[in-house]
Here is the input.
Amino acid sequence: SEVRASVERSSQHFVDLTPELAVSPAAAAEAINKHGLHVLVNLNGYTNGGRLEVYALRPAPIQVNAIGYPGTMGAPYISHLLTDRIASPPETIAGYSERLIFMPHAYLVNSLQASYPHLLHPRHRPPPRGPDGTEAGLATPDAGPED
Here is the structure.
């Protein structure tokens, strides 16, 4: 995806654990530990693809839940939660097992419109695109009248 490509480009060090995950969660945890990561961030939480069995093996000293699941994980192996004061009002802090890291404005950055347009209500879906990348049925600005 565009988002993943952007993360890979802007990361100082990016490792794809797909081969290790195909073997076992323990193999992935071992690879993470071997790379000496200080902070490991889970972007899924209890949602599909969260790979919590890897986090349960504690391959990094600081393990953070962020973005995919805005509530407490209640898991002893997740030490921090990246959130904001709307998703996690300060008066609810006692209900979290994690140490909360509050983002100043909004913690969630996504593009449901780009990633999951089929899930959106039709009025919120992006317009269909033609083979040339323009909106279907619309001419490009530099296109002249058809002969």
Observations:
- The mean pLDDT is 82.
- The longest helix spans residues 25-34.
- The longest strand covers residues 62-66.
- DSSP finds five helices and four strands in the chain.
